[in-house]
Structure formats: structure tokens, C-alpha cells
Design brief:
Blueprint lengths: L8 E5 L10 H12 L4 E5 H8 L19 H10 L1 H12 L5 E5 L5 H14 L4 E5 L6 H10 L6 E3 L3 H13 L10 E3 L36 E3 L2 E2 L10 H5 L3 E2 L2 H15 L3 E4 L8 H13 L5 E6 L7 H9 L2 E9 L3 H7 L5 H13 L3 E8 L6 H14 L5 E7 L7 H4 L6 E2 L5 H4 L1 E2 L6 H17 L3 E5 L6 E4 L2 E4 H7 L16
Parallel strand pairs: 1-2, 1-3, 3-4, 4-5, 7-10, 10-11, 11-12, 12-13, 13-14, 14-17
Antiparallel strand pairs: 5-6, 8-9, 15-16, 18-19
Helix pairs in contact: 1-7, 4-5, 9-10, 10-11, 14-17
Bound molecules: iron/sulfur cluster.
């Protein structure tokens, strides 16, 4: 949407993000800024570019292609081909009346965001540019962005942005010293120091109204929303806790009010709950479901969940009655020793029971599998294959299968020596190996293939996969290319939803 006169900040979202509903981060910020008396506009460059590009580049918005956005050469190639569309975006930003441009930075939009910021700073050096979002949390991430953008970010906001951005704009308007705020760091004075973040009180955050978006640009079939922030999990390979802090739920009344608002104003009755785990607080979840039923909302929704023993038949039947149609479980492994090493809250037994109860309640079951955690030998991997075979009747879809990525600043990253992990210079997150070479990239790829093969053999739908395009799945009836498998499962592919890397 074009920024209006008197706008205080223009919030920008670069690709990749979903194309069927607006980005949640800028939406939350804009509504909360408006509540504090500031005028925020949003430029969803993600949807603008998606609508501008044609041909094979549109595939970049498939969730299976998100790694392409982490590849500098691939992004440069994309930017060259779509130079006029990107220049039009820069011109729109440069000619807006907003004195501040704010960018939501998430993995994997860092490279294309930094390229835009660099070009924007050259075009209008007087404009204040501020970055925020999960990919601005750590000093190393901010240094990476500054290097890529030629030091073009003026400020970063770390942690949740709703209150910090309000304080930033208040100080900016009064020309006060902004970087005294614990959540604000100056781009040219970013020290690697730990800052104590206090997670926001969920009762103080307004839900997004999406009034800043032109909804005709989106599919309009569903809305993404949050019922909680943070996660009760402590998985070593995941950054959810360091990004969001401790787990907090939104008040039930506020959730019901939001659902009613979206249903009445946008005539949408299907929702995607983007929480890390919708069942982080079982009592709260049950209360939300009871209120949805009591208010006669008649909605449908899907969510991600942890395979906890609390996923009882009673709770799942209540969820089904409240409109839950699909649950995605981060099963990851069928080996208890691997699950324990990962820091998962579930065991193979509780996972099996949860998906069986879910299926019996009439809710579709999707699962994620993660192969190659350090300590996963052939023996443990065989237990994962056995789990898939045993529970295949309860599994509707393999939502994601991936090899373990050693992500910067995760607890695993900080303890790689303990796990005997060696990081090569090139592509360390993906190409890591163990000192004894019992766990290498090749071995992980082979295991990933075997998972796909078993899943295919047992008739489970396949969602996203991180195998190389040239790879193929060996099935009983021959070889099936990954692209074919994806095409075959096309109707189940969702657009990129910001949930990438190692995460449930
Ligand atoms: S992997 Fe999933 S369950 Fe584990 S901490 Fe991350 S979001 Fe939570």
C-alpha cells in the first residue's frame, strides 16, 4: 500500500514469506504503533515481487526452495533478472514521506533485505533505516547484515518489537538519545554484549487488524494468527527460546475477539495458528476451544503441536469440535536416546500415542522428521524408520523431512565440541560432520532418502524436503524424482510460512 502523508514509519517485508496471507510481524507492529498514536504503513515487497516475477522464479516462493534465498549468488542472479521491479520498490521507498524505514529480517530473507537496504541508503542517505526481527537478535547476525549492506542499517531493535518500536519513535520525534534503550543498538556502535530482554506481557499487545494491507493481493482463504509466544520446548537445535523468551499465552477473550473480528471483517473462517506449539498450555488450549464452541464461531484451523501425553482423546475431541482440522507434530526421531539428546519433551511412545489419538479424533496428522542429530547411528536411525512404518496408518502427511542444520547461536552450536561436531569453512551449518566421520552430509542425505522411500512406500503424502533437486526417491515401483514427488504432492504444498530451519 502506498504510504500516506504524515506517516511515521514505513514497515517493509522482503521475500520469502507466504503469499496467501499478510506477514504477521509487520501487522503486529503496525497495529500496536497505531494504538500508541503513530502512523505506520506497510510495504509488503514479498507480495509485490511475487506478483512481478514470472516463470521458474515463482518457484522460489515454494517452501522447498527457501534455501535458495540463503545463497548470495542465487539472490544476486534473481536481483539482476528482476532489476526493474526491485528498482521500482526502491523508488517507492525513497519517495515516501516516512522518515524511518523499518525492515523485518527473518531467516532466510537477510541477503535480499541487506541488498535493498544498501541500495536505499545510496538513493536516500538521510533516511533512517532500522532492522528488527528474529534474524537481528545476535551480534553475529547484525554484523552479517551490516557487512552485506555496507553498514547501511542505522539501528537494530532486538527482541519483540511492539513496545520497543513505540519507544524508538517517541525518542526519534523528540531527538533524544535512542540507543540508551536496552532493545535498541546503533548500527555503527554494535557491541557484542548480552542484553537482558524482558518478554512482553501478552495482555498488553493488541492483535493485528491488517487494515494496512490491500487484502485483494492475497489468497484470502485463511488468516495466520498467534495464540501464544515462545515455546515450552528446549530443543538444542532450535532458536525459538532465544528469539521469543519464555512461553506466554494470550488471554482467551482476546483470542476469541480476534477470531470474531477477522471473521466479521474479512469473511474468512479458516485460520492457521502459527504458535511454536499450540498445546504449550493444555488448560489454556481447552479453554480456547470451549469458547470457540460456546460462541458458535464455526471456524476451521490448523496448528503445530508437541506430542505430549496431555494430547488425550478428550482434549483432541474438543479441538476437533472447535474446528481443528490438522495438527503438525515435530516427531523428528523414533529413537528415545536421540530424542533425549535433542532435548525433546516427547518420547517415541508418547509421540505414537499422540498421533494415534489425533487421528482417531478425526484430525489430520502431519509430522516432521529430522535426520542426523549427533549420536544418531544406523541403529537409532532404523528406529525412526520403524516408527514411521508402525504409525503409518495414523500419519496423513510427512510435512517436512530435513537433515540437521547446526544453526548459529543455538544451544547445539554453543556445544558442538561436546557433540564432536566439526564445522567446515564452506557451508558449515549444512556440511558439518562428526570427528569420527560416522555422521557426514552424505550419510544424512542417504538417511533422508530412506525416510522418503519408506513414506512413499506406505502411501503417506510428502510435503517439503531438503534433498538436492537431482536426487530421487527409490520406491518399490522404481525411482521418483524429488520434483515429481513434490508435484505429485502439490496440492499439499503450502506457501512459505516463515517456519524454516530446525523447528517443530
Ligand atoms: S523445535 Fe519446536 S518444540 Fe522444540 S523448542 Fe523449537 S519450537 Fe519448541
Amino acid at each position: 500500500m502506498m504510504p500516506a502523508e504524515g506517516v511515521d514509519i514505513l514497515l517493509v517485508m522482503m521475500p520469502p514469506w507466504g503469499i496467501i496471507n499478510p506477514p504477521l510481524g509487520p501487522a503486529y507492529l503496525a497495529t500496536n504503533l497505531a494504538k500508541a498514536g503513530f502512523n505506520a504503513e506497510i510495504l509488503d515487497v514479498n507480495i509485490t515481487l511475487y506478483q512481478s516475477v514470472t516463470g521458474a522464479d515463482r518457484e522460489l516462493w515454494q517452501i522447498s526452495e527457501d534455501n535458495q534465498w540463503r545463497n548470495p549468488e542465487r539472490v544476486a542472479d534473481f536481483a539482476d533478472r528482476w532489476e526493474s521491479a526491485i528498482n521500482a520498490v526502491i523508488e517507492k521507498l525513497a519517495t515516501s514521506s516516512a522518515p524511518i524505514i523499518g525492515l523485518s529480517v527473518i531467516d532466510p530473507n537477510e541477503i535480499i533485505t541487506a541488498r535493498l537496504v544498501k541500495a536505499l541508503k545510496i538513493r536516500c542517505p538521510e533516511r533512517t533505516i532500522i532492522g528488527g526481527g528474529p534474524a537481528c537478535q545476535a551480534h553475529g547476525q547484525r554484523a552479517f547484515l551490516q557487512e552485506l549492506s555496507d553498514q547501511s542499517f542505522d539501528y537494530f531493535i532486538i527482541g519483540e518489537g511492539e513496545k520497543a518500536l513505540v519507544r524508538f519513535l517517541q525518542a526519534f520525534k523528540q531527538s533524544e538519545i535512542i540507543s540508551q534503550d536496552v532493545q535498541v543498538v546503533k548500527g555503527d556502535d554494535d557491541q557484542d554484549i548480552a542484553r537482558k530482554m524482558v518478554p512482553l506481557d501478552m495482555t498488553e499487545i493488541a492483535y493485528p487488524t491488517f487494515t494496512e494491507f490491500d487484502m485483494s493481493h492475497y489468497g484470502g482463504e485463511s488468516f495466520a494468527l498467534l495464540w501464544s509466544r515462545g515455546c515450552i520446548g528446549r530443543c538444542l537445535y532450535c532458536k525459538e527460546r532465544s528469539t521469543w523468551g519464555h512461553y506466554r499465552v494470550r488471554p482467551v477473550e482476546s483470542i476469541i475477539e480476534e477470531l470474531t473480528f477477522l471473521k466479521n471483517n474479512y469473511h474468512v473462517s479458516n485460520f492457521v495458528v502459527y504458535d511454536s506449539a499450540v498445546n504449550g498450555n493444555g488448560a489454556h488450549l481447552a479453554q480456547v476451544c470451549k469458547e470457540i464452541i460456546a460462541k458458535g464461531l464455526k471456524i476451521t484451523w490448523s496448528a503445530e503441536a508437541i506430542a505430549l501425553p496431555s494430547m488425550s482423546p478428550e482434549l483432541l475431541q474438543l479441538m476437533k469440535k472447535a474446528g481443528c482440522h490438522t495438527l503438525v507434530y515435530g516427531i523428528e526421531s523414533g529413537s528415545d536416546s536421540v530424542l533425549k539428546a535433542m532435548g525433546k519433551l516427547s518420547s517415541a511412545k508418547t509421540a505414537g500415542e499422540a498421533i494415534k489419538n489425533t487421528s482417531q479424533a478425526g484430525i489430520r496428522v502431519a509430522i516432521n522428521i529430522l535426520v542426523g542429530f549427533p549420536g544418531e547411528r544406523e541403529e537409532e536411525f532404523a528406529q525412526t524408520l520403524a516408527f514411521l512404518k508402525t504409525h503409518a496408518p495414523s500419519i496423513d502427511r510427512l510435512d517436512s523431512v530435513s537433515t540437521l542444520q547446526v544453526v548459529t547461536d543455538t544451544p547445539l552450536w554453543q556445544r558442538i565440541e561436546q557433540f564432536g561436531v566439526v564445522l567446515p569453512e564452506k557451508e558449515p551449518h549444512d556440511r558439518w560432520y562428526t570427528e569420527d566421520k560416522s555422521n557426514t552430509w552424505d550419510i544424512r542425505q542417504q538417511r533422508l532418502q530412506k525416510v522418503l522411500s519408506v513414506v512413499s512406500e506406505y502411501g503417506i503424502e510428502i510435503g517439503r524436503t531438503f534433498l538436492d533437486d537431482r536426487s530421487s526417491i527409490q520406491t518399490d515401483t522404481g525411482s521418483l524424482s524429488i520434483k515429481s514427488a513434490l508435484r505429485r504432492a502439490d496440492r499439499f504444498l503450502r506457501s512459505w510460512a516463515g517456519k524454516v530451519g530446525n523447528k517443530t
